[in-house]
Design brief:
By secondary structure, the protein is an all-alpha fold. The chain is about 55% helix and about 0% strand. The protein has two helices and no strands. It has helices at about 5-15, 30-50.
Length: about 55
């Protein structure tokens, strides 16, 4: 599994393609997917902070 730092780096590297869409893959742009990925990461981190797991 990739480290969180590496995944964030990959998102940064793809920011230059944020307006690109490929309808045969998704109707949403690369930027939308980056935003969604970051929101998911934030939600997971917030949930972990509130849990007894850590």
């Amino acid at each position: 599994m990739e480290s969180l730092e590496r995944q964030i780096q990959q998102l940064k590297e793809n920011m230059s393609h944020m307006h690109v869409t490929k309808a045969h893959i998704s109707e949403e742009s690369v930027g939308w997917h980056i935003d969604h990925s970051l929101l998911v990461m934030i939600a997971i981190i917030s949930a972990l902070k509130k849990s007894d797991w850590i």
